[in-house]
Structure formats: structure tokens, C-alpha cells
Amino acid sequence: MSSSKGRTTLDVGADGVGIVTIINPPVNSLSFDVLNSLKDTCEQALRRDDVKAIVITGAQGKFSGGFDISAFGKIQDKSIQAPKPGFVSLEILSDVVAAATKPFVAAVDGLALGGGLEVAMACHARISTPNAQLGLPELQLGIIPGFGGTQALPRLVGIAKALEMMLTSKPVKGEEALSLGLVDAVASPAELVNTARRWALDILERKRPWVISYYKTDKLESLGEAREILNFARVQTRKRAPNLKHPLVCIDVIEEGIVSGSRAGLWKEAEAFQILLESDTCKSLVHFFFAQRGTTKVPGVTDLGLKPRKINKVAILGGGLMGSGIATALILSNYTVILKEVNDKFLQAGIGRVKGNLQSRVKKGQMSTEKFEKTLTLLKGSLDYESFRDVDMVIEAVIENVSLKQQIFSDLEKYCPPHCILASNTSTIDLDLIGERTKSQDRIIGAHFFSPAHVMPLLEIVRTQKTSPQVIIDLLDVGKKIKKTPVVVGNCTGFAVNRMFFPYTQAALLLVERGVDVYQIDRAITKFGMPMGPFRLCDLVGFGVAIATGGQFVLNFPERTYKSMIIPLMQEDKRAGETTRKGFYVYDEKRKASPDPEIKKYIEKSREISGVTIDPKLTKLSDKDIVEMIFLPVVNETCRVLAEGIAVKAADLDISAVMGMGFPPYRGGIVFWADSLGSKYICSRLEEWSNLYGGFFKPCSYLAERAAKGAPLSLTVDPTKSRL
Ligand SMILES: C[C@H](O)CC(=O)SCCNC(=O)CCNC(=O)[C@H](O)C(C)(C)COP(=O)(O)OP(=O)(O)OC[C@H]1O[C@@H](n2cnc3c(N)ncnc32)[C@H](O)[C@@H]1OP(=O)(O)O
Predict the structure, then answer these.
(1) Between the CA of residue 387 and those of 347, 375, 383, 431, what are the distances in Å?
(2) Could you tell me which residue ranges the 3-hydroxyacyl-CoA dehydrogenase NAD binding domain spans (predicted)?
(3) Fewest beta carbons within 10 Å, which of 78, 334, 537, 649?
(4) Domains in the chain: ranges and CATH
(5) Which of 43, 138, 278, 559 is labelled catalytic?
């Protein structure tokens, strides 16, 4: 979408109501053209004698998805000039719309997000459809609302609710918006514009109140109470997002309006918005926004004009942790699911897990008991393949055993209909190997979920050289329906996420064997923004899994795998992670982790076996150095994944890192972050460590080439080299 697109129109009815329509598909975003046109159209309506009142609405059932996010980059790289601060909030919304001598009513259908809701809040009343989404999600882009939202929303719904809506970026639906006072009435889509017309005339005739949101005070808490709420929000925000400044700026701007009045608040908001727009956080989060939407654009697949086929029934093989999680994700999105197990005991356990997953939603108030019962009816258990005769897709989620999987895929071919997609949830095994005894290679695909599968947002779609584009399209569609972000990758050991991140723990183990403290590493990595450090993660995943997947990498990439005995030694002693309540940490009955001095003995023993000694330089490492010694090897492996064409574009790997590993989105993803450091710097650091500590750190040729040219790592992969 370009910032030079979009317009507004004015249609004046016989009743004297002028309908201003925002038109900028697909979401009627507010480009500068739309905003300039909105100003002109509103001024024209105010000048015209035949217009008594004005309704603002959006074309095609969508009010507006907010300011045009694609303009952010252009403002940042100065290819377009941003208007002066306050042009929209003060000169258009406050001084033309809110201060108008004719009533404005917003007719909100579909969505009113960010600047969209800010336009609606500038009006004197709002009518919404019941399912419309209304919210201020700007913080998730590293900015604050910049068209008056920080001032209008607290005055319409109270400070506490406004803060919640802005800090979480979560929208509310029309019905809730009505109960909050954000909208004045709810009407069906068919009745929406007529209700808004009538409402506008009623305001004119003084039958309804003429309210300027910026000056409303009845919903505002007292000054003392307001300060308490704002200070509490500051404490919570510092705790939850210690690396982020913009949520605190948002709170300060709201406070300015409460203390000094909304005009002062609007000025402060405009100035803060301008500064935040240029921040690294905003640049990273905007990159992340478009990268996330870009994962479903796969050259040679999604540009062929193929339409996804309808998937009604899905069979899942294996009711373990993964299988039951996948089944939960599917039934939650209304797919009929058959869960197959090898005996009744395992089957009941699998069904029990699915029930447990749903029950936890009921407990948290996210699901009603009726919905729970209804959802569960979509799940059927099975001990044989008879019920597979009409399934549209099978997802195999059994243990990682090649010959078992080969047998299963050859059985599936016999029982499933010829159109059925044959997917495997393997996290490491080569799909070509799995399909070796199967003729329908074009239907074989990887559907790699992350645990817990009904919670984690990423779905790695792994295609082989033979997987048909139609099958990829179908799985992309299922991914979207079950609310996952799908990333299409090529077939290799570990695919994208596990492959990129295998050096993460290995680098940490290398450092520990050379004298760095386990807990210092975890602290430095969480301070950087990861949800947990490598050792806490190992405890969570369990040492069994860590050793098994580590083994795959030793086998496939021996020259660059760091072999440490720390984990095997601990496992021998029945310390296998959180499930045994002992790993790198000890866990109390509430599963709270505490450091354990005992681990020293395993580290010392492992050091003896590896023959390495403590390096006094490393014991004094700064947090920054720890972060780089752990993440630059991850960047190095990511470069290999790019060079081999496992991913179609670097941005897909950014998404994979954020959604599969919890890499902080406000750093834009692994490649985006690496490019902020520069390929030259990364290569020189890796070379330095490679000389000191061995081949584990050796920069790969892709990285070395980029560094030699001073080129970014994210340059598009040569399509001739792509495995996709
Ligand atoms: C000054 C102001 O306070 C600042 C702002 O307003 S900042 C903007 C605030 N608004 C937002 O953050 C909303 C962002 N958009 C969204 O959350 C979602 O896109 C949505 C809920 C609107 C629609 O979701 P969904 O139907 O799943 O479609 P989705 O694929 O996300 O978007 C459709 C297309 O619209 C684009 N789009 C969505 N919102 C956009 C926006 N605000 N600006 C520019 N493009 C936008 C997407 O990039 C996508 O483009 P593509 O088809 O070329 O990939």
C-alpha cells in the first residue's frame, strides 16, 4: 500500500446529512492523501449550506485500520516529509471536526483501530456494529497514539480502562465499547449509517447531547486517584517491559492531559509521537508488522492463482503432548478431528490432555462451559485407520523414530483418500526420509508446531522438493484459520527455528565450561529481552529432548557443534530439568526456580572431560559480551540457513526467531537485529572468538562475503539457490 493512495468522498442526502466515506482498501488506512482529503471534505461539508450534519464512515464495511503504517518507513528514511506535529490531531481532528458548528457522528463497522478510532473519537458521537473492533494498538508499533487518542480515550472510558486498552493494544468489540461509553449506540451493519444519520440530526435538534470528547470530564477519576492509577501502571510497565520507553511516554502524555488539560496533552502527544516515530523500537516493530504479513507470500506458490481447498476433517496420529496440543488448536477453530492412538489407555490419556487444555481456558474465563462441551464434540478417538477414509489432512505426531514414521506414511496412503494431505510434525527428521516408502510424495509436508501447540503462535510449514504448491496453499490456509503465523521453509535438519537456535545453548555451555556463571548468562539473556535464558530453557524443555535434538546436530554438523558433557552428566544423576524438579535450577512445589550451587560439580567434571580450563578474561564478561557470544553464533547459523535457501527471505527468519524462540520483537527479529550491528562487526567478533575458542565460532562464507562488501545480511536470497 502506498502513502499516495486513498481518498474520501462526500455524499449529501435529502435529509441534509453529508456522508464522508474513507476509501483506501484493503483497510482504509489513513495515508497522508486520505488525511488531507478528509480535512478538505470535512471543511467543504461545513461550508455547504445544504449540509446540516455529517457522518464519517469507511468503505466496504471497515471504518479504518489507522494511520498508514507503510508511511512510517518513508518518514524515517526521509523519502516523504511528515507534516508538522499536531497537523492531524490539532488542525484537523480537534479544530475542524471536534470544534465544528455542525454535529459529526462516526458510523463504525469492521474496525476502528489507531488513527481510525482517533478520528471516530473526535466526532460528537459514535455508532458501531456489534462486532466492530475498536482499539488503540499503536504501542505494538513502538509509538503512542498520535491523533489525539491519549487524550480522548481516558475521557470516554476512564483512565484505568484507557490505560489497559493502550498498554495491551487489545481492541474491544462494539457491545463492550457501548458498555464502556466509547460508543453511544450499537446498530446492525445494515442499519448503521441510517442510525448515525438520525443520531446526527438528533444532536442538531438538541435531542441528543453534543459532546466534545477532549473536554469530557465525567469519566475521569479524581486527580489523586488518577495519579495513583498512572503510577501503578508505570511500576507494572517497568516490570513487564524494562527495555521499552514508549509505554512510559504514553503514561506521561496521558498525565499531561489530566493535569494541564487536553490541549496541552495534545501538544505533548504530538511532540512525543514525532520523536518515537524515529526510534529503533518503532523501526523494529514496523519491520516485524510487515514481516509477519509477508510470511504468506511465497514466490512460485502463492502467486499461482491457486485457491485453498476446504479442509473439513483432520486426523492426528499420536495423543502425546504435541498431538493433543495440535488437536486442541484445530477443534478450537471448528475443525472436526480424529485422534488416533495405539491402545485405549494412550487414547484416553490423549483425549484427557485435550480436555485439560480446554478446561484451563474455562478456568481462566476465556471459554464458557457450553462452548467447552460443544468444542469437545468435534473430537473423536480412534484405534484404527477405518475412520480415515474421508479425512482431508493427517498430521502425524508420534515419537521421532524414522522407521515407525515410514510405516505410518505408507499405511496412510492405503487408507486416506487421494486428495488427503499427509503432514508430519517432526521437528528434526528429514521429510524425504519419512516419505521414502510412500508414492504420494507431492502430498507430504511438514507441519511443525511448537509446544504447547495450542498456545505457541508459529507454524513451520516444511516443503520438500516434491511437495505440491496446492498442498502448501491448503496448509497456509489452515494455519491462518487456527490463528498461527505460518512460515514456509525448506527441508533440512532442524528446519529453520531449531536449526538457527542450536548454537544458543551450545554457546552458553562453552562459556560455562570456560568459567562464566550459569545464572549470569541467564540474567544477561533475559535482560536482553528473551523470555528465559538458555539454561532455564533447557530445564523447561527437559534434558532428554535437549540431548536427543543435540545429537541430531552433532551428527549433521560435527565441525561446528560444541560438545559438552554438562547436561549428560546431570542427567546421569537424575537431574533432567523441571519435571525432575532439578536441572540447572532447583524447583519448589510451586515450580519456582532457584539457583543451585551443586551444579558446580558437574561443570568441573565436564571441564575435566573436555580438557578446557577457566579463561580469566571470560569470567569478567559484560552482559553485552555474553549476549553477543551467545547470539552471534545464532546469527552465523541463520546466515547458513539463508545461504542454503531454507528460507525464502530474511524477514521470515525474523518471524521464526520471534515466534518460535521468543526473540524480542522490539529488536525486529534475528536478522534485523544483526543488521543493526552490521555484518562487518559480527564477522570480526566471530573471527576473534574462532581464533581463541575454535571452529564453533567460525564465520560462514555467506557472512564473510557480506562483511567483505559491508552489505546487510538481509539482502534477498538468490532465487536460483533457493531450496523452496
Ligand atoms: C497516529 C496513529 O495513532 C498511529 C496509527 O494509527 S498506527 C496504526 C494503528 N493500526 C494498527 O496497528 C492496525 C494494524 N493492522 C492490523 O492490526 C490488521 O492488519 C487488521 C486488524 C487491520 C486487519 O487484519 P487482517 O484482516 O488479518 O488483515 P492483514 O493481513 O493484517 O492486513 C491486510 C492488509 O492491510 C495492510 N494493513 C493493515 N493495517 C494497515 C495500516 N494501518 N497501514 C497500512 N497497511 C495496513 C496489511 O499490511 C495487509 O497488507 P497486504 O495484504 O499487502 O499484506
Answers:
(1) 15, 20, 9, 25
(2) 313-491
(3) 78
(4) 7-278 (3.90.226.10), 313-491 (3.40.50.720), 498-721 (1.10.1040.50)
(5) 138
Q: Is 611 exposed, middle or buried (0-12, 13-18, 19+ CB in 10 A)?
A: exposed
Q: Whose CA is nearest to atom 31 of ligand 1?
A: 293
Q: Is 68 in the pocket of ligand 1 (CB under 6 A)?
A: yes
* pLDDT tens string 172-206: 999 999 999 999 999 999 999 999 999 999 999 99
| pLDDT greater than 60 at residue 220 | yes
How many angstroms does the Cα of residue 134 sit away from the middle of ligand 1? Answer: 13
Q: What is the pLDDT of residues 151-164, one digit of tens each?
A: 999 999 999 999 99
Nearest-atom number in ligand 1 for the CA of 69 is 43
- Grid cell at residue 239: 516490570
**Ligand 1 binding pocket includes 34 (Cβ within 6 Å):** no
**Would the pLDDT of 453 be above 50?**
yes
Q: Is 141 in the pocket of ligand 1 (CB under 6 A)?
A: yes
Closest residue by Cα to atom 51, ligand 1, is 293
Three-state SS at 424: strand
Confirm whether 138 is a catalytic residue. Answer: yes
Which of 440, 556, 432, 564 has its CA nearest to residue 511? 564
- What are the pLDDT digits (tens) for 109-124? 999 999 999 999 999 9
Residue 1's pLDDT is what?
41
